[in-house]
Amino acid sequence: MNDEQLRILEALVEAADSGRTAVLATVVRTRGSTPRKAGARMLIGRDGVWAGTVGGGCGEGEVLEAAHAVLADGRTRTVRVDLTEDLLTLSPAVCGGIMEIRLELVPPSPR
Amino acid sequence: MVTYAHHDAVDAATAARLVLEAHRLGRTSVEAVVLGGPFAGTRFVLREAGPDPLLHFEASGLQGAERDVLASAIADAARSFIRGSSTPGPRAAHTGIQEIALPDSEPVEVYFELYPPTPELVIVGAGHLALPLSEVGRLLGFRVVVLDDRPDFARRDRFPAASEVVRVDFRDPFANHPPTHLSHHLLVTRGHRFDCECLRQLLVLEPPPCYIGMIGSRRRVRATFHQLVDEGFAPERLAGIRAPVGLDLGAETPAEIAIAVAAELVRERRGGTGLPLSEKERIAERFFGNRDAARTP
Is the domain of B124 the same as that of B223? Predict the structure, then answer.
């Protein structure tokens, strides 16, 4: 296990144990050139990112938006972040690939 | 034969607890999440649970006969992951999606996350090079252990990044620290004869440690190899030793050398070429070569 995996798991357990609801975002599949590969994870709460990253500027805004939707309705979803279209625009998404990111609700653990 | 313990389905937090528990025991685990089909969202954790890591798993997240079919298919895949993870070399096992075939229904996609035990970086020799090496080792996620026979050097307070600093006898440097197939050894001792002692012990291990690097000039490395060949070690065995250790960056200072060694460790882990990406990709030349040349006044 690397440090990044360790930090995410610890943050996840800590959030669940302290009664805070979170969303776990996991890159499950990528194609082309993407900032992160499968396995990159991010833990998101109501007030923003708690741990990890799925790719910095590249598509993270879309992921945060989806995370808030998951927080609102509790439903697992997979978002496809396409970083190929805006390659030559001013968008920060200049990475050139597609990432599939699964987002699921992590409710507080029952006591 | 595979043994399972049956539990209720696990949620993400429970899975994290199970994985962290295995991690603290130095054991591998695999987390699997079914992405499609009737069991979409079902999460399994398979942990190395017995003395033979390939046979004994505790599988959490199973319930009912249908899930058992899925679970055993996932367990097979997970075992191949774990087998792969203990093989040295570039990215033998991957985190990612695999398609699992099921009897009487469509195959399902399952996302696997592999949690191998934390690899260990054993730095032999606690001199000036060991300081930056222990720092970069820690940065790269290794559990860092520093060994030396000199009490003034093998001091805990000199190595804040190390998990252990141990005073050893170089006649038997690994007596209290048996190397495993996950150990990475860096020999940065103060002398050729200590390197020989270490290599004599490391080279007879079965399976061999996944990485042995030794610092030294061409002359020193040659002298060490010469002695070992004289003692009967096969030259093929010596060829696996990374000596002189590190990528060719022209490094001179201890910090620079540590970065060159760290770069080689990353390459070992990920399997890159070691070339500058700009030279490998040559984007300007390949995509803009003629046009740019034409524009140049």
Answer: yes
Task: Kindly indicate the confidence band of residue B55, based on its pLDDT and cuts at 50, 70 and 90.
Answer: very low
Instruction: Dig out the tokens for A60 from the structure.
Output: 């993270």
Q: Would the CB atoms of A104 and B118 count as touching at under 8 Å? A: no
A32 at interface of B, judged by CB pairs closer than 8 A:
no
Q: Answer yes or no: are the C-beta atoms of B218 and B188 closer than 8 Å.
A: no
Residue B134 included in any domain: yes
How distant is the Cα of A39 from the closest Cα of chain B, in angstroms? 6
Is the pTM of the predicted complex or chain greater than 0.95?
no
Q: Is A103 on the interface with B (CB under 8 A)?
A: no
Domain total for chain B? Answer: 2
Residues B227 and B246 in one domain: yes
The range of the structural domain enclosing residue B165 comes to 120-270
Residue B238 maps to which CATH number? 3.40.50.720
CA distances from A37 to A3, B5, B56, B231 (A): 16, 32, 30, 46
Residues B262 and B133 occupy one common structural domain: yes
Lowest-confidence segment of A81-95, B50-64, B152-166, B248-262 by average pLDDT: B50-64
Structure tokens given for B69: 């079919």
Cβ of A13 within 8 Å of Cβ of B13? The answer is yes
B29, B22 contact by CB (below 8 A): yes
Q: Is B226 exposed, middle or buried (CB count within 10 Å of its CB: 0-12, 13-18, 19+)?
A: exposed
**Sequential DSSP letters for B75-121:** HHHHHHHHHHHTS-STT-S--EEEEEEETTEEEEEEEEEEEPPPPEE
B32: closest CA among B18, B49, B50, B52? B18
- Which residues pair with residue A79 across a beta bridge? A101
Please tell me the distance from the alpha carbon of residue B54 to that of residue A3, in angstroms, as a whole number.
Answer: 25
The reply to whether residue B20 touches residue A10, judged by beta carbons under 8 angstroms, is yes
**Interface confidence: ipTM more than 0.90:** no
Q: Are strands B183-187 and B211-214 parallel, antiparallel or unpaired?
A: parallel
> What percent of chain B is modeled with pLDDT above 90?
44
Residue B283 lies in a domain: no
Give chain A's residues under pLDDT 70.
56-58, 85-95
Give the integer Cα–Cα distance in Å for B171 and B126.
Answer: 16
Q: Is the pLDDT of residue B59 over 90?
A: no
Whether B225 and B127 share a structural domain: yes
Contacts of A38 in chain B (CB under 8 A): 94-97, 111
Asked whether residue B152 is domain-assigned, the answer is yes
Q: Nearest-CA neighbor of B154 among B126, B196, B131, B174?
A: B126
